[in-house]
Structures are given as structure tokens and as C-alpha cells.
Amino acid sequence: MEGVQLLIVEDDDAIAIPLEEGLEREGFECTRVATGAAALEAPPADLVLLDLGLPDMDGNDVCRELRARSNVPVIVVTARGEEVDKVVGLELGADDYLVKPFGLRELVARIRAVLRRTDARGDGEDPILRDGLLEVDTRTHRSTVDGSEMNLTPKEFDLLALLATDPGATFTREEILEQVWDAHWYGPTKTLDVHVASLRKKLGDPDWIETVRGVGFRLRDDR
Ligand code: CA
User: Fold this and answer.
1) Residue 18 neighbours by CB distance under 10 Å
2) CA-CA distance, 204 to 193, in Å (whole number)?
3) CATH class, range 128-219
4) Of 115, 187, 192, 208, which alpha carbon lies 20 to 30 A from 46's?
5) H or E element that contains 65
6) Residue 90 CA, ligand 1 centroid: distance in Å
7) Ligand 1 centroid vs 15 CA: distance in angstroms?
8) What is the per-residue pLDDT across 55-96, written as a single tens digit (0 to 9) for each?
9) Domain range 5-120, CATH class
10) Is the peptide bond before 101 cis (omega within 30 degrees of 0)?
């Protein structure tokens, strides 16, 4: 499970610290936060371990909000074992449910099972790149700006999807040509400018894609 990023949302140090140590020994990369608000501000993870009893928010609301934003798998962890919590948690989109106290072995088995299951569903990683008003779904190859669908050619789509992987970052012309066209693209680089121009037109606002003079292009992340 190397390279798997876990977000641990747990306010109780006595649980969170050994949990984080144990999971890191198992090869997971862990980020831990202690509040619901911090969980919603945390960088994207491959799986969220969510305690329902948080100091600032109801864990169920955190789960709902996470689910509204992405397909990240969520395992709900709670001290409350009542069936009603379980039903609510799963209805809100949690992928599994674990009642405290639980052993590390059991947790790791659940994490692996959820990751396998969500990978099989094909949405283990969120294919939708959201950048404010812009959505790029690399699984369905659809993109929308401000809710309306854009009719992009395959190259226009790939170009937009590449820029959207890291909004705000500048991609050099070479990088773009290599990744969107071909690793051995020696054709006229004007092709890129033509595609940027048509993409800007379809985005409805030329400012979406900024030209970084002498370097390349970037998707504006401040819109
Ligand atoms: Ca708690």
C-alpha cells in the first residue's frame, strides 16, 4: 500500500497517535487532522478515515460534504455502535463502518478491501478535476464550464485536462506538446497555439488560460 495517502480525522490523540504510527508502519502515508473543518480543508487523499464524534462538526455532515466534493472512499469510525449511526453513515456515502475499539489488523484489512472495491468501480481516484466553475471528467471525457457542456475535440480535451491537473501551475510548451500530442512531436508548435485559441473560445472567457510569455500556459486558479 505504498504511496496510498490516508487522511485521518480524529480529535482524540490517544487514538490518533498510535493509529497513525501503526498505519505508517503498514506503509500508508498519513495526514492527521482533529476537526471537521480541517478535514474539509485538507489536501486530497486516497481514503478518509473519519471519526464521527468531532469537536466542531457532526461527522455525518463532514462525510456528506466530502462526498459532495469527490468520490474519495470514506471509512467511518465511531465509538457509537448504534445501528442507526451505521445506516446514516452508509446512506451519506461512507464505504465502510468500524466501531471503536478496533484492532489495527482489522482496520488495515478494511482499508485494503475498500481500496480494492473502489478501484474496481473505476472511481478509486476522482476523475473529475474541479476548478471552480470548470469540471473536467477524464473518465467520461466530458467537460463543463459553469454547468454547460463544452464540445471539445479530443486534443482540446486532453490539453484542458492536462492544465487542470495543476491549476495555477505553468506547463511549458514542450511539456504540453509531449503529453498531449506525442512524445516525439516535431511538428509546428503553432498547432498548440491554435488549440489554445479554440479552447479559450469554447471556455467563453479567454482569461481561463493564461499565456506565460516565452514559457507556456497555465490554467488560472483564481477565478
Ligand atoms: Ca472523537
Assistant:
1) 11
2) 17
3) mainly alpha
4) 208
5) helix 59-69
6) 18
7) 9
8) 999 988 999 898 888 878 899 888 766 655 666 666 677 888
9) alpha beta
10) yes
CA of 17 to the centre of ligand 1 (A): 13
Q: How far is the CA of 63 from the centre of ligand 1 (A)?
A: 14
- CB 114, CB 123: distance < 8 Å: no
CA distance 58 to 60: 5
94 vs 49: CA distance, rounded Å: 10
- Ligand 1 centroid–CA 32 distance in Å is 13
Reported as a single tens digit per residue, the pLDDT across 107-117 is 998 898 888 77
Mean pLDDT (the chain, rounded): 83
For the stretch 167-190, what's the b/e string if a residue is b when 16 or more beta carbons lie within 10 angstroms of its beta carbon?
beeebeeeebbebbbeeebeeeee
Cα 55 to averaged position of ligand 1 atoms, centre (Å): 7
List for the chain the helix, strand, coil content (%; round to 5).
Answer: 40, 25, 35
CA 196–ligand 1 middle distance (angstroms): 49
Which residue is listed with cell 506538446?
A: 177
- For the chain, which residues make up each domain, given as ranges? 5-120, 128-219
Residue 52 Cα to ligand 1 midpoint, Å, equals 7
